[in-house]
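On clarity, I found the account of how folds are encoded harder to follow than it need be. Since the whole study asks how a given chain folds, the encoding of that fold should be made plain. For illustration, here is how one protein appears when written out as sequence plus structure tokens:

:::
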Amino acid sequence: MTVAARASAWTRLSDRANAAVWALPAPRRVKALLSRGVYRNPPMPVDRVLELLDALERAEVELILMGGWGIDALVGHQRRVHRDLDLIVARRHVEAAIGTLRRMGFEEWFRDCSPARLAAHRVEGDIVVMRDSAMRVVELHPIRLRDGAGPEAVRGSIGGHPVRCISAQLQVDAHSRFRKRLPGDRRRQEENLATARQVLGRAHPG
């Protein structure tokens, strides 16, 4: 493992501060808010994204991109730095996805058991959060993707490579329903919402 591939000293320090936050005797929503203030994942570069997507495809894991990378897949190029990779994964393929990511140097960080929805689609099981030695994060959101039951997926591209991502309409719905609490998170959410609306407007002019 090269020095460049390992987590920076600042990331390790902020990670310890984050662990202290989660050990506080406080409500979960308070700790989650404090956590976002003291810890920020290092960037997830496009070459790492493509490496992970290729490995998951070879493992025949059915998935759909969401989040910031999902927005960039819609527009066909990277607009900004992303600090994680959010993936909707077919519920039946979650363990295969976890095993594949472990072979790619990731370990399970934690599981989020709080109820979550993507518009009308309920996350079925815990959201699995994994990270590698550089503390770059991948989130797996298990959803049933059989018989047309999953969220609407469209073709997008990252780094010139075709990928499946959630539709612009679903991005608009998802970003309109929930308002982020921290200013930086709200700014990124508003940018994502504006971009999804632009894509939707190009697809359905007038």
